Amino acid sequence: MPLWGLSLDREVAKSFGNAFLFEVVGPFPAIPAWAESGIKGDERELIAGGRYSIARIEEANGGAPVELYFVEVVPLAM
Fold first, then answer.
1. Confidence of residue 69 (pLDDT cuts 50, 70, 90)
2. Contact yes or no for 40/56 (Cβ under 8 A)
3. Which among 44, 46, 61, 70 could disulfide-bond with 8, CB atoms 3.0 to 4.6 Å apart, if both were Cys?
4. Own/partner pairs for 35-43, CB < 8 Å, 24+ apart?
5. Phi then psi dihedrals of residue 3, to 5 deg
6. Cut 0.70: pTM above it
7. Are 48 and 74 in contact (CB under 8 A)?
8. Other Cβ atoms within 10 Å of 43 Cβ, number
9. For residue range 38-60, what is the model confidence (pLDDT) as tens digits?
10. d(C-alpha 31, C-alpha 34), whole Å
11. Number of neighbouring beta carbons within 10 Å of residue 70
12. Is 32 helix (H, G, I), strand (E, B) or coil?
């Protein structure tokens, strides 16, 4: 999965829509975006990347919550 952002606040994540709601299960590498940018601290967004596998998909309420777990770091191509 390429570099992506996720929120530690479920309500913030849902505010972007619920067609697909991804939840990372277990430990994974990430950096806190607000610590680097100094903005949007209330969104509690993390920047992550790497390879993830699907643990579970469940259709509910017109959306599809998806549980992911971290598999490995993928080095950036230079």
1. very high
2. no
3. 44
4. 42/9, 42/12, 43/7, 43/9, 43/12
5. -55, 135
6. no
7. no
8. 16
9. 776 677 788 888 899 999 988 87
10. 9
11. 19
12. strand
